[in-house]
Amino acid sequence: MNKKSFSTNKVATRQGYGEGLVIAGEADEKVVVLCADLTESTRSILFKEKFPDRFIEIGVAEQALATIAAGMATYGKIPFISSYAAFSPGRNWEQIRTTIALNDVPVKIAGAHAGLTVGPDGATHQMLEDIALMRAMPNMVVMYPADAIEARKATVAAAKNGKPTYIRLAREKTPIITTEKTPFEIGKSHVLLNPSTRSADAQGRLEQSRKATSSGPHGDPQVAIIGAGPLLYEAVVAAKKLAESGIETVVINSHTIKPIDEQTIIKYAKITGAVVTVEEHQINGGLGGAVAEVLARNFPVPQEFVGMPDSFGESGDPDELLEKYHMKSADIIAAVKKVITRKNS
Amino acid sequence: MTRKLTNQELKEKANLIRLDIIKMLVEAGSGHSAGPLGMADIFTAFYFNLLKHDPKNPQWEERDRLILSNGHITPVRYVAMAHAGYFPISELKTLRKLGSRLQGHPERKRLPGVETTSGPLGSGLAQASGYAYAARMDGQKFRVYCICSDGEHDSGNHWEAVLFAGKNKLSNLTAIVDRNNIQIDGYTEEVMPLEPLRAKYEAFNWHVLHIDGHNLEEIIDAVNHAKAVFEKPTVIIAHTIPGKGVDYMENDPKWHGAVPGVSDMPGEPSKEKQTQIALHELRTLKGKIKSEHE
Ligand SMILES: Cc1ncc(C[n+]2csc(CCOP(=O)(O)OP(=O)(O)O)c2C)c(N)n1
Ligand SMILES: [Mg+2]
């Protein structure tokens, strides 16, 4: 696979969060940051250095982290609480539910080191259920940025949305796949890759291969790949490779998982008639589930799910683990082919 | 059952364990250094003197239960277990690798002899309390030990268990606190002051002992003393030096979650150099780690 055709610049989404905190802090002095003994690795340190008086150390106490922030938000502050997703919202879920969501106060929960790719730390630290936990919760906004640039924008946007908000972040440095100019609006997904926007050059090559494979008409995409988070890079890699063999797809970045962008999902389900969802999270209850709920109610089409197959993770190198648990571009390609077969049968 | 080692043998064993901790962490390329090195003497005392256990039969019903709450220091437990004969020492080099039984944080279902899964902090003492309570209901004679860290004392779950065990006079439970004064964001007394820790436990109806966690005699005496306290659970506050034995690691929170060569501080010696210095220092100690009073 020729990965060189994409940006090779890699930055962790947690870094984008830290940068976003500083911007949000400059824009609004009500923004405060609370952290549970993970100031450096959640990149909250960037805010702490800039605004030491608005940074609060809570210690290893995630239940207090959520509830102290709830108190501050009820008073009128805009607290961001930083920890690892396994512990916040993993450990303090009920506190978040009652004191943040039911109170409907604007606490921003940043779950860093989410997903399988925390690697060697193993299953205890590989949070793969947080999207399910958070998207089931009324009033909660759930965001899962694709790269560091988007994480920065999501953080800045969260400071202004007035709602309980969860932002899912990763530890590993991952490819930058959006640009500063890419539009970002909470609740509005973004089409990352679309056959109609392909360069003339690439279109020419595509026509060639289409003649060879007699694939779908008019260059219309045959499958909508809907993903969130850094795995979208794998989705883009898969889509480009599929295009080379004459299978057109559209890749949609559903960075907001709640409220999910129903319109875009329905629109592309109608165009393609088949969907593959991609996420570094349990298949049960994740983004795939959210998409399936929209489809079932509005426009049912066959769907395949790329994600964690109802299993805990384990220690290992991040890439090895993604391979073992079938979340790499090759697995997305297989899912696309499978869903096309289902659609056509 | 394994033979109880003598004091001098224990010191030498503790040093071998420290050497293997460094080797396995360097091989793994990630993990925690400070906690495991600081607790090497205590784990040596447990696995080679104090515990009633059978490495060849990890599920032996009468064994004492050693519950590790601060799972990130599991390398010291793995090394002690390997040296005690639970599994081959060569397996240590699989730490944190795909398919290993030696997970980055310990998992009960993967490695026989690991009593519970841990890593997320603050929930070990509650599990140990539940275990001790259940065992007492059935008149079991074994003891339940819970090793936990000072950083965990920030957590409500830990103090909820302190209340429960105090209320229920769980005298079959002994907690050992790794009082090394560091956590991730810095020194415990700056992040979230814990002192006076003794008075806190006493107020919650615990029997409290203070020891030098690098003095093997004191460790053994204290744990044996706790067996003779019938009205209360006992907590042994073990004063330890994080990174003990490797000069550049001692007492520096930076080494909480770093291994030689992986810290990206500018001007650091290379990985090989850091490893070499660590191993050299440990070798030249030749089993003579000194406690503060020796
Ligand atoms: C519930 C929970 N929150 C946060 C963490 C991340 N974490 C791992 S170790 C640690 C520091 C705790 O201090 P201590 O156990 O005293 O560390 P040590 O002395 O071994 O350096 C933290 C915050 C965790 N493992 N579990
Ligand atoms: Mg400590």
TrEMBL record, chain A:
Q: Which CDD domains does the entry link to?
A: TPP_PYR_DXS_TK_like
What Gene Ontology terms describe what this protein does at the molecular function level? transferase activity
SMART domains listed in its UniProt record: Transket_pyr
- Domain Transketolase-like pyrimidine-binding per the UniProt entry, residue ranges: 11-176
Q: Where is this region: Disordered?
A: 197-221
Pfam families for this protein:
Transket_pyr, Transketolase_C
Family in the record: Belongs to the transketolase family.
Specify whether Phosphoprotein is a keyword of the entry.
Answer: no
Protein name in UniProt: Transketolase
Q: Which InterPro entries match?
A: PDH/Transketolase (IPR051157), THDP-binding (IPR029061), Transketo_C/PFOR_II (IPR009014), Transketolase-like_Pyr-bd (IPR005475), Transketolase_BS (IPR020826), Transketolase_C (IPR033248)
The UniProt keyword set, sorted, is: Thiamine pyrophosphate, Transferase
Automatic annotation (TrEMBL), chain B:
Key word tRNA processing present: no
The record, for InterPro entries, names: THDP-binding, Transketolase_N
**Record keywords:** Thiamine pyrophosphate
Give a yes or no for keyword Nucleotide-binding in this entry: no
- Coiled-coil ranges per the record? none
* Protein name per UniProt: Transketolase
Q: Which Pfam families match?
A: Transketolase_N (PF00456)
Cofactor entry: thiamine diphosphate
Gene3D superfamilies for the chain: 3.40.50.970
- Entry similarity comment: Belongs to the transketolase family.
- Domain (Transketolase N-terminal) spans 12-261
